[in-house]
Amino acid sequence: MVRPTGGTRRGFLGGAGAVAATAALTGVARAQPRGRTAAPRTVAVLGGGVAGLTAAHELAERGFRVTVYERKSALGGKARSMDVPGSAKGGRKPLPGEHGFRFFPGFYQNLPDTLRRIPFPGNAHGCHDNLVPSTEVMLARTHGREDIRIPFTGIGKPPPVLTPDALLRALTAFFETFSRLPAHEIAYFAGRLLVWFTSCEQRRTQTWERVPWFEFTRAARMSADYRQLLAIGITRNIVATKAEVASTKTVATCVEAFLFNALGRGADGEPDRVLNAPTNEAWIDPWLAHLRSLGVEFRTGWAVRDLRYEGGRITEAVVQDASGARRSVTADHYVSAMPVEHARTTWNAQLRAADPQLARCDALHTDWMTGIQFYLTEPTPIIHGHINHIDSPWSITSVGQAQYWSGRNFRAAYGDGSAADCLSVDVSEWDRPGILYGKTAKQCTREEVAREVWAQMKAGLNDTGRTVLSDATLHSWFLDPAVELGGAQASNDEQLLIHPTGTWYNRPQARTAVPNLFLAGDYVAVDIDLATMEGANASARAAVNALLDEAGSGAERCTVTPLHRAPELEGFKRRDEIRHRLGLPNAFDLG
Protein backbone atom coordinates (compact mmCIF):
# COMPACT_ATOMS: atom_id res chain seq x y z
CA MET A 1 0.00 0.00 0.00
CA VAL A 2 1.36 3.43 -0.95
CA ARG A 3 0.56 6.83 0.42
CA PRO A 4 2.23 10.23 0.23
CA THR A 5 4.15 10.84 3.44
CA GLY A 6 2.10 13.02 5.71
CA GLY A 7 -0.98 12.62 3.49
CA THR A 8 -4.02 10.38 3.22
CA ARG A 9 -3.72 6.70 2.42
CA ARG A 10 -4.23 5.65 -1.18
CA GLY A 11 -4.94 2.05 -2.11
CA PHE A 12 -4.43 0.21 -5.37
CA LEU A 13 -5.67 -2.95 -7.02
CA GLY A 14 -2.99 -5.66 -7.02
CA GLY A 15 -2.26 -9.35 -6.73
CA ALA A 16 -5.10 -11.81 -7.14
CA GLY A 17 -7.67 -9.07 -7.75
CA ALA A 18 -5.76 -7.67 -10.70
CA VAL A 19 -5.25 -11.15 -12.14
CA ALA A 20 -8.90 -12.04 -11.83
CA ALA A 21 -9.89 -8.79 -13.55
CA THR A 22 -7.39 -9.38 -16.34
CA ALA A 23 -8.53 -12.97 -16.84
CA ALA A 24 -12.16 -11.91 -16.96
CA LEU A 25 -11.44 -9.30 -19.63
CA THR A 26 -9.07 -11.31 -21.79
CA GLY A 27 -10.10 -14.89 -21.22
CA VAL A 28 -6.45 -15.75 -20.48
CA ALA A 29 -6.01 -18.00 -17.46
CA ARG A 30 -3.10 -17.43 -15.09
CA ALA A 31 -0.45 -20.03 -14.42
CA GLN A 32 -1.33 -22.61 -11.80
CA PRO A 33 -0.04 -21.31 -8.45
CA ARG A 34 2.44 -23.40 -6.47
CA GLY A 35 0.38 -23.16 -3.28
CA ARG A 36 -1.71 -20.49 -1.62
CA THR A 37 -1.52 -18.67 1.66
CA ALA A 38 -4.73 -18.68 3.70
CA ALA A 39 -5.34 -15.05 2.74
CA PRO A 40 -3.35 -12.90 0.29
CA ARG A 41 -0.64 -10.94 2.06
CA THR A 42 1.21 -7.96 0.67
CA VAL A 43 4.92 -7.90 -0.07
CA ALA A 44 6.98 -4.89 -1.08
CA VAL A 45 9.99 -6.03 -3.11
CA LEU A 46 12.56 -3.25 -3.02
CA GLY A 47 14.65 -3.59 -6.16
CA GLY A 48 13.82 -4.76 -9.67
CA GLY A 49 16.95 -6.66 -10.71
CA VAL A 50 17.32 -10.43 -11.01
CA ALA A 51 16.95 -10.91 -7.24
CA GLY A 52 13.84 -8.74 -6.97
CA LEU A 53 12.13 -10.19 -10.03
CA THR A 54 12.89 -13.74 -8.85
CA ALA A 55 11.38 -13.00 -5.44
CA ALA A 56 8.32 -11.46 -7.08
CA HIS A 57 7.96 -14.48 -9.35
CA GLU A 58 8.10 -17.02 -6.52
CA LEU A 59 5.81 -15.02 -4.25
CA ALA A 60 3.20 -14.28 -6.91
CA GLU A 61 2.99 -17.98 -7.81
CA ARG A 62 2.16 -18.61 -4.15
CA GLY A 63 -0.68 -16.13 -4.00
CA PHE A 64 1.01 -13.08 -2.44
CA ARG A 65 0.18 -9.57 -3.60
CA VAL A 66 3.52 -8.22 -4.77
CA THR A 67 4.64 -4.75 -5.77
CA VAL A 68 8.20 -4.17 -7.01
CA TYR A 69 9.84 -0.79 -6.43
CA GLU A 70 12.83 0.03 -8.64
CA ARG A 71 14.88 3.23 -8.45
CA LYS A 72 15.80 3.11 -12.15
CA SER A 73 13.37 3.86 -14.95
CA ALA A 74 13.85 0.32 -16.28
CA LEU A 75 13.61 -3.15 -14.72
CA GLY A 76 16.12 -5.96 -14.93
CA GLY A 77 19.02 -4.41 -13.03
CA LYS A 78 22.49 -5.05 -14.41
CA ALA A 79 21.10 -7.94 -16.48
CA ARG A 80 18.94 -5.75 -18.70
CA SER A 81 19.77 -4.57 -22.19
CA MET A 82 19.08 -0.98 -23.18
CA ASP A 83 18.49 1.11 -26.28
CA VAL A 84 21.28 3.26 -27.69
CA PRO A 85 19.66 6.71 -27.82
CA GLY A 86 19.08 8.16 -31.29
CA SER A 87 20.36 5.08 -33.11
CA ALA A 88 17.12 3.81 -34.70
CA LYS A 89 16.25 4.76 -38.28
CA GLY A 90 14.01 3.47 -41.04
CA GLY A 91 11.61 1.66 -38.71
CA ARG A 92 14.36 -0.41 -37.11
CA LYS A 93 14.89 -0.94 -33.39
CA PRO A 94 17.62 1.03 -31.63
CA LEU A 95 21.04 -0.57 -31.41
CA PRO A 96 21.11 -2.86 -28.36
CA GLY A 97 23.40 -1.76 -25.52
CA GLU A 98 23.96 -3.35 -22.12
CA HIS A 99 25.75 -3.05 -18.79
CA GLY A 100 27.83 -6.06 -19.84
CA PHE A 101 27.35 -9.24 -21.82
CA ARG A 102 25.25 -12.03 -20.34
CA PHE A 103 26.95 -15.36 -19.68
CA PHE A 104 25.13 -18.47 -18.40
CA PRO A 105 27.58 -21.20 -17.33
CA GLY A 106 26.21 -24.71 -17.41
CA PHE A 107 26.72 -25.09 -13.67
CA TYR A 108 23.91 -22.60 -13.04
CA GLN A 109 20.87 -24.53 -11.78
CA ASN A 110 18.48 -22.11 -10.07
CA LEU A 111 18.34 -19.40 -12.72
CA PRO A 112 17.75 -21.93 -15.51
CA ASP A 113 14.79 -23.28 -13.53
CA THR A 114 13.31 -19.77 -13.49
CA LEU A 115 13.98 -19.37 -17.22
CA ARG A 116 12.02 -22.57 -17.92
CA ARG A 117 9.02 -21.10 -16.11
CA ILE A 118 8.86 -17.90 -18.20
CA PRO A 119 6.63 -18.50 -21.23
CA PHE A 120 8.08 -17.58 -24.62
CA PRO A 121 6.17 -17.96 -27.91
CA GLY A 122 7.16 -21.11 -29.75
CA ASN A 123 9.44 -22.42 -26.99
CA ALA A 124 8.61 -25.67 -25.22
CA HIS A 125 10.80 -24.73 -22.25
CA GLY A 126 10.15 -21.01 -22.08
CA CYS A 127 13.04 -18.57 -22.08
CA HIS A 128 15.44 -21.41 -21.30
CA ASP A 129 15.22 -22.40 -24.96
CA ASN A 130 16.75 -19.01 -25.80
CA LEU A 131 20.08 -20.14 -24.33
CA VAL A 132 22.55 -21.21 -27.01
CA PRO A 133 25.98 -22.75 -26.38
CA SER A 134 29.36 -21.42 -27.41
CA THR A 135 31.75 -23.99 -28.81
CA GLU A 136 35.11 -22.49 -27.82
CA VAL A 137 36.93 -19.82 -25.87
CA MET A 138 40.04 -17.85 -26.78
CA LEU A 139 42.86 -16.45 -24.68
CA ALA A 140 44.18 -13.60 -26.82
CA ARG A 141 47.91 -12.98 -26.22
CA THR A 142 49.89 -9.89 -27.22
CA HIS A 143 53.35 -9.27 -28.74
CA GLY A 144 53.00 -11.96 -31.40
CA ARG A 145 52.36 -14.81 -29.01
CA GLU A 146 49.95 -17.38 -30.39
CA ASP A 147 46.40 -17.09 -29.12
CA ILE A 148 45.08 -20.10 -27.21
CA ARG A 149 41.79 -21.57 -28.42
CA ILE A 150 39.99 -24.08 -26.23
CA PRO A 151 37.11 -26.16 -27.65
CA PHE A 152 34.11 -26.67 -25.40
CA THR A 153 32.56 -29.51 -27.37
CA GLY A 154 33.84 -32.83 -26.13
CA ILE A 155 36.54 -31.26 -23.97
CA GLY A 156 36.33 -33.99 -21.40
CA LYS A 157 34.41 -36.94 -20.13
CA PRO A 158 34.35 -37.67 -16.43
CA PRO A 159 36.22 -40.78 -15.33
CA PRO A 160 33.83 -43.61 -14.43
CA VAL A 161 34.99 -43.26 -10.81
CA LEU A 162 36.31 -39.90 -9.71
CA THR A 163 39.23 -40.96 -7.53
CA PRO A 164 41.86 -38.34 -6.60
CA ASP A 165 44.24 -39.92 -9.10
CA ALA A 166 41.65 -39.89 -11.89
CA LEU A 167 40.67 -36.33 -11.01
CA LEU A 168 44.30 -35.25 -11.06
CA ARG A 169 44.76 -36.75 -14.53
CA ALA A 170 41.60 -35.04 -15.80
CA LEU A 171 42.70 -31.67 -14.39
CA THR A 172 46.17 -32.04 -15.84
CA ALA A 173 44.80 -32.90 -19.29
CA PHE A 174 42.43 -29.94 -19.21
CA PHE A 175 45.13 -27.43 -18.27
CA GLU A 176 47.57 -28.86 -20.80
CA THR A 177 45.03 -27.86 -23.43
CA PHE A 178 44.14 -24.65 -21.65
CA SER A 179 47.48 -23.06 -20.85
CA ARG A 180 50.42 -24.58 -22.78
CA LEU A 181 52.51 -24.01 -19.68
CA PRO A 182 55.52 -26.17 -18.72
CA ALA A 183 54.47 -29.63 -17.59
CA HIS A 184 55.76 -29.18 -14.05
CA GLU A 185 53.74 -25.97 -13.56
CA ILE A 186 50.57 -27.62 -14.88
CA ALA A 187 51.13 -30.56 -12.55
CA TYR A 188 51.63 -28.24 -9.62
CA PHE A 189 48.49 -26.22 -10.35
CA ALA A 190 46.43 -29.42 -10.77
CA GLY A 191 47.79 -30.56 -7.41
CA ARG A 192 46.68 -27.33 -5.76
CA LEU A 193 43.20 -27.83 -7.17
CA LEU A 194 43.16 -31.39 -5.85
CA VAL A 195 43.84 -29.92 -2.39
CA TRP A 196 40.78 -27.73 -2.82
CA PHE A 197 38.57 -30.51 -4.21
CA THR A 198 39.31 -32.72 -1.19
CA SER A 199 39.18 -29.97 1.47
CA CYS A 200 36.34 -30.16 3.98
CA GLU A 201 33.88 -27.29 4.33
CA GLN A 202 35.48 -26.13 7.57
CA ARG A 203 38.89 -25.82 5.92
CA ARG A 204 37.35 -24.02 2.98
CA THR A 205 35.55 -21.42 5.12
CA GLN A 206 38.00 -21.14 8.00
CA THR A 207 41.34 -21.44 6.18
CA TRP A 208 41.05 -20.93 2.44
CA GLU A 209 38.67 -17.97 2.85
CA ARG A 210 41.57 -16.18 4.57
CA VAL A 211 44.20 -17.12 1.96
CA PRO A 212 44.56 -15.06 -1.25
CA TRP A 213 44.33 -17.02 -4.50
CA PHE A 214 47.78 -15.72 -5.48
CA GLU A 215 49.24 -17.31 -2.36
CA PHE A 216 47.22 -20.54 -2.61
CA THR A 217 48.46 -21.16 -6.16
CA ARG A 218 52.06 -20.23 -5.16
CA ALA A 219 52.07 -17.83 -8.12
CA ALA A 220 55.01 -15.77 -6.86
CA ARG A 221 57.39 -18.71 -7.38
CA MET A 222 56.12 -19.59 -10.86
CA SER A 223 56.65 -18.25 -14.38
CA ALA A 224 55.15 -15.01 -15.64
CA ASP A 225 52.75 -16.95 -17.89
CA TYR A 226 51.59 -19.06 -14.94
CA ARG A 227 50.86 -15.91 -12.95
CA GLN A 228 49.11 -14.24 -15.87
CA LEU A 229 47.02 -17.23 -16.96
CA LEU A 230 46.16 -19.06 -13.75
CA ALA A 231 46.41 -16.47 -11.00
CA ILE A 232 45.84 -12.94 -12.27
CA GLY A 233 43.75 -13.72 -15.36
CA ILE A 234 41.19 -15.92 -13.61
CA THR A 235 40.56 -13.47 -10.78
CA ARG A 236 40.61 -10.17 -12.66
CA ASN A 237 38.69 -11.22 -15.73
CA ILE A 238 36.10 -13.47 -14.07
CA VAL A 239 35.79 -12.38 -10.43
CA ALA A 240 36.86 -8.75 -11.11
CA THR A 241 39.21 -8.62 -8.18
CA LYS A 242 42.97 -8.85 -7.71
CA ALA A 243 44.65 -12.25 -7.26
CA GLU A 244 46.77 -10.85 -4.45
CA VAL A 245 43.67 -10.22 -2.31
CA ALA A 246 40.94 -12.45 -3.82
CA SER A 247 39.59 -15.14 -1.50
CA THR A 248 40.70 -18.64 -2.48
CA LYS A 249 37.30 -19.91 -1.35
CA THR A 250 35.51 -17.69 -3.86
CA VAL A 251 37.83 -18.26 -6.80
CA ALA A 252 38.26 -22.01 -6.25
CA THR A 253 34.49 -22.51 -5.80
CA CYS A 254 33.97 -20.99 -9.25
CA VAL A 255 36.83 -22.98 -10.81
CA GLU A 256 35.53 -26.21 -9.25
CA ALA A 257 32.02 -25.64 -10.57
CA PHE A 258 33.31 -24.82 -14.04
CA LEU A 259 35.56 -27.89 -14.16
CA PHE A 260 32.78 -30.21 -13.00
CA ASN A 261 30.63 -28.62 -15.72
CA ALA A 262 33.35 -29.26 -18.31
CA LEU A 263 33.53 -32.89 -17.17
CA GLY A 264 29.76 -33.26 -17.51
CA ARG A 265 29.08 -33.31 -13.76
CA GLY A 266 26.20 -31.34 -12.24
CA ALA A 267 25.50 -29.45 -15.44
CA ASP A 268 22.34 -27.82 -16.73
CA GLY A 269 24.02 -27.36 -20.09
CA GLU A 270 27.24 -26.51 -21.90
CA PRO A 271 29.94 -24.59 -19.98
CA ASP A 272 29.40 -21.36 -21.94
CA ARG A 273 25.94 -20.22 -23.00
CA VAL A 274 24.55 -16.90 -24.20
CA LEU A 275 21.14 -15.63 -25.28
CA ASN A 276 19.92 -15.79 -28.86
CA ALA A 277 18.76 -12.15 -28.84
CA PRO A 278 19.34 -8.97 -26.83
CA THR A 279 18.64 -9.71 -23.16
CA ASN A 280 15.38 -7.80 -22.90
CA GLU A 281 13.96 -9.48 -26.00
CA ALA A 282 15.04 -13.00 -25.00
CA TRP A 283 14.38 -12.82 -21.27
CA ILE A 284 13.55 -9.63 -19.35
CA ASP A 285 10.52 -8.42 -21.34
CA PRO A 286 8.84 -11.87 -21.40
CA TRP A 287 9.56 -12.17 -17.67
CA LEU A 288 7.91 -8.85 -16.89
CA ALA A 289 4.90 -9.78 -19.00
CA HIS A 290 4.58 -13.07 -17.14
CA LEU A 291 4.89 -11.40 -13.75
CA ARG A 292 2.18 -8.90 -14.67
CA SER A 293 -0.04 -11.82 -15.66
CA LEU A 294 0.50 -13.15 -12.12
CA GLY A 295 -0.63 -9.83 -10.64
CA VAL A 296 2.75 -8.28 -9.86
CA GLU A 297 2.76 -4.48 -10.01
CA PHE A 298 5.79 -2.35 -10.76
CA ARG A 299 6.79 1.14 -9.67
CA THR A 300 9.81 2.34 -11.64
CA GLY A 301 11.72 5.47 -10.73
CA TRP A 302 10.85 4.89 -7.07
CA ALA A 303 13.97 4.99 -4.88
CA VAL A 304 13.94 3.64 -1.33
CA ARG A 305 15.31 6.18 1.15
CA ASP A 306 14.63 4.58 4.54
CA LEU A 307 13.11 1.54 6.25
CA ARG A 308 11.27 2.65 9.37
CA TYR A 309 11.66 0.29 12.30
CA GLU A 310 9.31 0.30 15.28
CA GLY A 311 8.08 -2.32 17.71
CA GLY A 312 10.45 -4.93 16.35
CA ARG A 313 9.18 -4.72 12.75
CA ILE A 314 9.44 -2.66 9.60
CA THR A 315 6.45 -0.33 9.67
CA GLU A 316 7.00 1.40 6.34
CA ALA A 317 9.47 2.03 3.53
CA VAL A 318 10.02 5.68 2.74
CA VAL A 319 10.48 6.07 -1.00
CA GLN A 320 10.93 8.92 -3.44
CA ASP A 321 8.77 8.49 -6.52
CA ALA A 322 9.58 9.41 -10.11
CA SER A 323 8.30 12.96 -9.57
CA GLY A 324 10.53 13.48 -6.53
CA ALA A 325 7.68 13.26 -4.00
CA ARG A 326 8.22 11.33 -0.78
CA ARG A 327 5.82 8.44 -0.22
CA SER A 328 5.20 5.82 2.42
CA VAL A 329 4.97 2.17 1.33
CA THR A 330 3.38 -0.27 3.75
CA ALA A 331 3.18 -4.05 3.39
CA ASP A 332 3.04 -7.16 5.50
CA HIS A 333 6.55 -8.14 4.42
CA TYR A 334 9.54 -6.43 2.81
CA VAL A 335 12.19 -8.03 0.59
CA SER A 336 15.24 -5.80 0.21
CA ALA A 337 16.56 -6.82 -3.21
CA MET A 338 18.82 -3.89 -4.03
CA PRO A 339 22.58 -4.16 -4.67
CA VAL A 340 24.44 -3.99 -1.37
CA GLU A 341 25.92 -0.53 -1.98
CA HIS A 342 22.40 0.86 -2.32
CA ALA A 343 20.61 -1.40 0.17
CA ARG A 344 22.84 -0.47 3.10
CA THR A 345 22.04 3.23 2.67
CA THR A 346 18.42 2.39 3.61
CA TRP A 347 19.34 0.65 6.88
CA ASN A 348 19.15 3.24 9.64
CA ALA A 349 20.76 3.02 13.08
CA GLN A 350 17.72 1.41 14.72
CA LEU A 351 17.55 -1.29 12.05
CA ARG A 352 21.27 -2.00 12.25
CA ALA A 353 21.03 -2.31 16.02
CA ALA A 354 18.20 -4.80 15.61
CA ASP A 355 20.33 -7.05 13.37
CA PRO A 356 24.14 -6.74 13.52
CA GLN A 357 24.58 -8.63 10.22
CA LEU A 358 23.27 -5.54 8.44
CA ALA A 359 26.06 -3.40 9.89
CA ARG A 360 28.64 -5.98 8.81
CA CYS A 361 27.61 -5.39 5.20
CA ASP A 362 29.44 -2.06 5.39
CA ALA A 363 32.64 -4.11 5.14
CA LEU A 364 31.64 -5.63 1.78
CA HIS A 365 33.49 -4.23 -1.22
CA THR A 366 32.41 -3.31 -4.72
CA ASP A 367 34.46 -2.48 -7.82
CA TRP A 368 33.95 -1.59 -11.45
CA MET A 369 33.20 -4.24 -14.06
CA THR A 370 31.47 -2.36 -16.81
CA GLY A 371 30.50 -2.93 -20.41
CA ILE A 372 31.06 -1.15 -23.70
CA GLN A 373 29.67 -2.26 -27.07
CA PHE A 374 31.31 -1.69 -30.45
CA TYR A 375 29.03 -1.81 -33.49
CA LEU A 376 30.71 -2.98 -36.70
CA THR A 377 29.76 -2.59 -40.35
CA GLU A 378 30.84 -6.15 -41.15
CA PRO A 379 30.06 -9.41 -39.33
CA THR A 380 33.06 -10.01 -37.07
CA PRO A 381 32.44 -13.09 -34.92
CA ILE A 382 36.23 -13.81 -34.40
CA ILE A 383 35.40 -17.10 -32.62
CA HIS A 384 32.20 -18.86 -31.60
CA GLY A 385 32.62 -17.98 -27.95
CA HIS A 386 34.13 -15.52 -25.51
CA ILE A 387 37.55 -13.95 -25.83
CA ASN A 388 39.67 -13.33 -22.77
CA HIS A 389 42.17 -10.59 -23.67
CA ILE A 390 44.46 -12.04 -21.05
CA ASP A 391 47.32 -9.54 -21.43
CA SER A 392 45.20 -6.38 -21.66
CA PRO A 393 46.00 -3.93 -18.84
CA TRP A 394 42.28 -3.25 -18.39
CA SER A 395 41.39 -6.98 -18.09
CA ILE A 396 39.07 -7.10 -21.07
CA THR A 397 36.74 -9.90 -22.14
CA SER A 398 34.54 -9.79 -25.24
CA VAL A 399 32.08 -11.71 -27.39
CA GLY A 400 30.70 -11.21 -30.90
CA GLN A 401 26.95 -11.32 -30.38
CA ALA A 402 25.19 -11.27 -33.77
CA GLN A 403 26.42 -14.79 -34.58
CA TYR A 404 24.15 -16.11 -31.82
CA TRP A 405 21.08 -14.11 -32.80
CA SER A 406 19.69 -16.62 -35.26
CA GLY A 407 16.55 -15.81 -37.15
CA ARG A 408 17.29 -12.11 -37.42
CA ASN A 409 19.34 -9.91 -39.71
CA PHE A 410 21.24 -7.40 -37.59
CA ARG A 411 21.34 -4.75 -40.35
CA ALA A 412 17.63 -5.06 -41.02
CA ALA A 413 16.62 -5.17 -37.36
CA TYR A 414 18.74 -2.56 -35.58
CA GLY A 415 20.17 0.91 -35.95
CA ASP A 416 20.45 2.73 -39.25
CA GLY A 417 20.99 -0.32 -41.45
CA SER A 418 24.77 -0.05 -41.70
CA ALA A 419 25.77 -1.88 -38.49
CA ALA A 420 26.09 -5.65 -38.95
CA ASP A 421 27.46 -6.85 -35.62
CA CYS A 422 27.89 -6.00 -31.96
CA LEU A 423 31.15 -6.77 -30.16
CA SER A 424 30.22 -6.59 -26.48
CA VAL A 425 33.10 -6.00 -24.09
CA ASP A 426 33.54 -6.08 -20.31
CA VAL A 427 36.23 -3.93 -18.69
CA SER A 428 37.27 -5.26 -15.27
CA GLU A 429 40.29 -3.10 -14.40
CA TRP A 430 39.70 0.65 -14.16
CA ASP A 431 42.72 1.64 -12.07
CA ARG A 432 45.70 0.66 -14.28
CA PRO A 433 47.21 2.81 -17.04
CA GLY A 434 46.25 1.93 -20.60
CA ILE A 435 48.44 1.64 -23.69
CA LEU A 436 47.28 4.74 -25.61
CA TYR A 437 47.10 7.58 -23.10
CA GLY A 438 48.98 6.20 -20.10
CA LYS A 439 45.94 6.96 -17.97
CA THR A 440 43.64 4.74 -15.95
CA ALA A 441 40.14 4.22 -17.29
CA LYS A 442 38.74 6.38 -14.49
CA GLN A 443 41.00 9.24 -15.60
CA CYS A 444 39.82 9.04 -19.22
CA THR A 445 36.89 10.65 -20.95
CA ARG A 446 34.24 8.33 -22.38
CA GLU A 447 35.73 8.77 -25.86
CA GLU A 448 39.21 7.94 -24.57
CA VAL A 449 37.88 4.81 -22.88
CA ALA A 450 36.37 3.64 -26.17
CA ARG A 451 39.60 4.29 -28.11
CA GLU A 452 41.69 2.63 -25.40
CA VAL A 453 39.56 -0.51 -25.21
CA TRP A 454 39.56 -0.81 -29.00
CA ALA A 455 43.34 -0.44 -29.05
CA GLN A 456 43.84 -3.07 -26.35
CA MET A 457 41.68 -5.55 -28.23
CA LYS A 458 43.59 -4.94 -31.45
CA ALA A 459 46.87 -5.43 -29.56
CA GLY A 460 45.84 -9.00 -28.77
CA LEU A 461 44.00 -9.90 -32.00
CA ASN A 462 46.00 -8.11 -34.71
CA ASP A 463 49.52 -8.86 -33.47
CA THR A 464 50.30 -11.91 -35.62
CA GLY A 465 49.96 -10.28 -39.05
CA ARG A 466 46.23 -10.86 -39.51
CA THR A 467 43.81 -7.93 -39.29
CA VAL A 468 40.95 -9.17 -37.15
CA LEU A 469 39.64 -5.78 -36.04
CA SER A 470 39.75 -2.98 -38.59
CA ASP A 471 39.19 0.69 -37.83
CA ALA A 472 37.36 0.94 -41.15
CA THR A 473 34.59 -1.37 -39.90
CA LEU A 474 33.95 0.50 -36.64
CA HIS A 475 30.48 2.02 -36.86
CA SER A 476 29.96 3.39 -33.33
CA TRP A 477 30.23 2.47 -29.64
CA PHE A 478 28.11 2.64 -26.49
CA LEU A 479 29.47 2.83 -22.94
CA ASP A 480 27.26 1.93 -19.98
CA PRO A 481 25.50 5.19 -18.95
CA ALA A 482 25.91 4.25 -15.27
CA VAL A 483 29.54 5.36 -15.66
CA GLU A 484 30.26 9.07 -15.40
CA LEU A 485 33.70 10.22 -16.52
CA GLY A 486 35.45 13.46 -17.29
CA GLY A 487 34.33 15.37 -14.21
CA ALA A 488 36.03 16.06 -10.91
CA GLN A 489 35.62 12.43 -9.87
CA ALA A 490 34.64 9.35 -11.85
CA SER A 491 31.56 7.49 -10.61
CA ASN A 492 29.74 4.26 -11.37
CA ASP A 493 26.15 3.78 -10.24
CA GLU A 494 26.14 0.02 -10.96
CA GLN A 495 29.17 -1.64 -9.43
CA LEU A 496 30.01 -5.29 -8.83
CA LEU A 497 30.50 -7.05 -5.50
CA ILE A 498 34.08 -8.31 -5.21
CA HIS A 499 35.56 -10.93 -2.92
CA PRO A 500 38.75 -10.08 -1.02
CA THR A 501 39.81 -12.49 1.72
CA GLY A 502 37.45 -12.52 4.68
CA THR A 503 34.48 -11.26 2.65
CA TRP A 504 32.42 -14.37 3.39
CA TYR A 505 32.21 -13.55 7.11
CA ASN A 506 30.43 -10.27 6.37
CA ARG A 507 27.85 -11.63 3.95
CA PRO A 508 24.37 -11.82 5.51
CA GLN A 509 21.72 -14.51 5.46
CA ALA A 510 18.44 -14.03 3.62
CA ARG A 511 16.53 -14.10 6.92
CA THR A 512 17.14 -11.15 9.21
CA ALA A 513 16.42 -10.68 12.92
CA VAL A 514 13.54 -8.41 11.89
CA PRO A 515 10.58 -10.76 11.31
CA ASN A 516 9.16 -9.02 8.24
CA LEU A 517 12.43 -8.05 6.51
CA PHE A 518 14.28 -10.39 4.14
CA LEU A 519 17.38 -9.91 2.02
CA ALA A 520 17.94 -10.95 -1.60
CA GLY A 521 20.88 -10.11 -3.83
CA ASP A 522 24.20 -11.48 -4.99
CA TYR A 523 25.82 -10.27 -1.75
CA VAL A 524 23.70 -12.62 0.39
CA ALA A 525 25.49 -15.79 1.48
CA VAL A 526 24.58 -18.62 -0.89
CA ASP A 527 26.37 -21.71 -2.15
CA ILE A 528 27.87 -20.18 -5.29
CA ASP A 529 29.81 -17.53 -3.30
CA LEU A 530 30.22 -15.21 -6.28
CA ALA A 531 28.46 -12.08 -7.52
CA THR A 532 26.36 -13.67 -10.26
CA MET A 533 22.83 -13.80 -11.60
CA GLU A 534 22.72 -17.34 -10.20
CA GLY A 535 23.62 -16.04 -6.75
CA ALA A 536 20.95 -13.34 -6.98
CA ASN A 537 18.36 -15.92 -8.02
CA ALA A 538 19.31 -18.42 -5.30
CA SER A 539 19.29 -15.75 -2.59
CA ALA A 540 15.81 -14.63 -3.64
CA ARG A 541 14.56 -18.20 -3.34
CA ALA A 542 16.08 -18.40 0.14
CA ALA A 543 14.42 -15.09 1.07
CA VAL A 544 11.03 -16.32 -0.15
CA ASN A 545 11.39 -19.55 1.84
CA ALA A 546 12.19 -17.57 4.98
CA LEU A 547 9.18 -15.33 4.32
CA LEU A 548 6.91 -18.36 3.86
CA ASP A 549 8.13 -19.75 7.17
CA GLU A 550 7.50 -16.44 8.93
CA ALA A 551 4.04 -16.13 7.38
CA GLY A 552 3.13 -19.69 8.38
CA SER A 553 2.34 -20.41 4.76
CA GLY A 554 1.50 -23.90 3.58
CA ALA A 555 2.74 -23.08 0.08
CA GLU A 556 5.42 -25.22 -1.53
CA ARG A 557 8.91 -24.01 -0.71
CA CYS A 558 11.29 -22.85 -3.44
CA THR A 559 13.90 -25.32 -4.54
CA VAL A 560 17.42 -24.02 -3.93
CA THR A 561 19.84 -26.25 -5.79
CA PRO A 562 23.43 -26.24 -4.48
CA LEU A 563 26.55 -26.58 -6.58
CA HIS A 564 27.49 -30.12 -7.57
CA ARG A 565 29.37 -32.21 -5.05
CA ALA A 566 31.14 -35.34 -6.31
CA PRO A 567 29.98 -38.19 -4.05
CA GLU A 568 33.27 -40.04 -4.65
CA LEU A 569 35.17 -37.23 -2.90
CA GLU A 570 33.00 -37.00 0.20
CA GLY A 571 35.03 -39.63 2.05
CA PHE A 572 38.22 -37.64 1.46
CA LYS A 573 36.48 -34.52 2.76
CA ARG A 574 35.37 -36.32 5.92
CA ARG A 575 38.93 -37.45 6.57
CA ASP A 576 40.14 -33.94 5.91
CA GLU A 577 37.67 -32.67 8.50
CA ILE A 578 39.43 -34.80 11.11
CA ARG A 579 42.84 -33.55 9.97
CA HIS A 580 41.59 -29.98 10.06
CA ARG A 581 40.34 -30.37 13.65
CA LEU A 582 43.76 -31.77 14.60
CA GLY A 583 45.53 -28.81 13.01
CA LEU A 584 47.00 -30.91 10.18
CA PRO A 585 47.13 -29.85 6.50
CA ASN A 586 45.11 -31.52 3.78
CA ALA A 587 46.59 -34.92 2.94
CA PHE A 588 47.34 -33.79 -0.64
CA ASP A 589 48.83 -30.44 0.41
CA LEU A 590 52.54 -30.90 -0.27
CA GLY A 591 53.35 -27.21 -0.07
TrEMBL record:
Highest taxon listed in the record's lineage: Bacteria
Record PROSITE patterns: TAT
A GO term, aspect molecular function: oxidoreductase activity
Location of the Amine oxidase domain: 50-548
Name the record gives this protein: Phytoene dehydrogenase
Source organism of this protein record: Streptomyces cinnamoneus (Streptoverticillium cinnamoneum)
